[in-house]
Amino acid sequence: MEPSVSLELAKHTLMMLGIILAVGTFSGLIARLVRIPDVAVFLLAGMLLGPGISGLVNIKADSTINQLIMIFGSSYILFDGGASVRIKVLKEVWITIVVISTAGVLITAAITGVAAWYFLGLAPAVALLLGTVIASTDPATLVPVFKQVHIKDRVAQTVMSESAFNDAMGAILTFTVLGIAMGAGEFSAGDAIIDLLKQSLLGILIGGILGYLAAFFISHEKFGFLAEFAPVVTLMAVICAYMSADGFHSSGFMAVFVFGIMIGNQESLGFKLTRRENNLLEDYVITTAFIMRMFIFILLGTQVDFGLMNQYLLNGVAVVVVFMLVARPATVFLCALPDRRAKWSFSEMLFMCWTRETGVIPGALAGMLVGMKAPGAQIIASVAFIAILMTILIQATTTKWLARKLGLLVE
Fold first, then answer.
1. Cα–Cα distance between 395 and 400 in angstroms, integer?
2. If I label 34, which of 2, 7, 9, 58 is the partner at 20 to 30 A Cα–Cα?
């Protein structure tokens, strides 16, 4: 009896997932030995496994399994990051977070757009579209870095929160500019602000409600009958938070991040897990988050299109250098310096200037533009990949060194 095509496909996919797990485990060990964030090693390993070099793993960016891993993996990593945030710290720095994740995205996009216009010779609307695609920071990259490199609380939590909150702004801005570039619309600041508020507030509301309910049924003294099933409840609730927010056309990533904040601050809500149950939940979250970032960044590495990157390599690198060394510092200083409540030091702002890795979200936006055959989509995708590689391999690997130099590392 001939095996069915679907069975053979399932076996092939299972083999590739097994390869990713094996290589990812070894890569994680290497990262620990050389003391750098594992996402950088995962990315390099993915490039070696992908069609461009060995061809051992070939999972298309637009495939169902890739989209599933990217959406759920990013959501779970973001939930993990939210659980690390303390409400007490957020109260001190919330103004900076709001400004840098809204106006900051506009500043970064504008400066990067000018660089793209100058170095790549793009039309102004297409250049700005490129700027908007890579303007938002990436939570799937930043959260793991700060899990491994222990930075001063308020700095780490500000950057992680920004990465969670600015994905909505980045997406709204990208598709607004896309409408202009394709001649299908005009920019309306009022509509963009209303859309942003709707996506943000609904995401916060959904994440807050689900987070409170999960904490209630896990940790309530009388009604916490799901305490022993806390890991499974969080898994289910992360999916529910993302899908509920997405169903209401709001920010799914914001919803899972707020859900994580609620779970991580259960004591502030009047709930408390036993030590055994808390340790069980922590071990589960740490292991699951490790597996998710392993899959995300190895897959991201396999999908790097070397041929496309080479077409615009030198000018693309120039754009990304401006993006890293001009756009991000301008954004941080313009958005954080006026916040008198937070009283940021120069060292703290300098560190935030350097930590703004690009990853899954910008990569996904670039992929969507290619699928839609948007103006300049191939160039945008090329520069997006260059930005992902440069920021992860350069910035993520030097985060600990810079934090130590600036006196922000917590040993």
1. 10
2. 58
Helices (H), 248-390: 252-264, 275-302, 306-311, 313-322, 328-336, 346-354, 360-371, 377-390
Residue 223: DSSP 8-state: T
Domain chopping of the chain, boundaries: 62-405
* Backbone torsion region of residue 138, taken as left when φ is above 0, otherwise alpha when ψ lies between -120 and 50, otherwise beta: beta
Most distant pair of Cα atoms in the chain: their distance: 74
**Nearest residue to 289 via CA among 348, 357, 218, 238:** 238
411 residues of the chain, pLDDT tens digit each: 456 778 888 888 889 889 999 999 999 899 888 877 788 888 889 889 988 888 888 888 778 888 888 788 878 887 887 887 778 777 888 899 889 988 898 999 999 999 999 999 988 889 999 999 888 777 767 777 887 788 888 888 888 888 877 776 777 778 778 777 776 555 565 666 777 678 778 888 999 999 888 888 888 767 667 777 888 888 888 899 889 988 888 878 788 888 988 888 887 777 777 777 778 888 888 888 888 888 888 888 887 778 877 888 899 999 999 999 999 999 999 999 988 888 899 999 999 999 887 777 777 777 777 767 788 888 888 888 888 888 888 888 898 899 999 998 886
Q: What is the DSSP string of 16-49?
A: HHHHHHHHHHHHHHHHHHHTS-HHHHHHHHHHHH
User: Is 0.85 topped by the overall pTM?
Assistant: no
Q: Are 332 and 353 in contact (CB under 8 A)?
A: yes
Please identify which residue in the block is written with the tokens 């008198």. Answer: 340
Q: Cβ contacts of residue 141 below 8 Å, gap of 6+?
A: 39, 163, 297, 357, 358, 359, 360, 391, 392, 396
Q: Which amino acid is at 401?
A: W
Instruction: Tell me which CATH code domain 62-405 carries.
Output: 1.20.1530.20
Q: What is the dihedral of CA 153, 83, 74, 353, to 10 degrees?
A: -10
Distance of CA 105 to the CA centre of its chain: 14
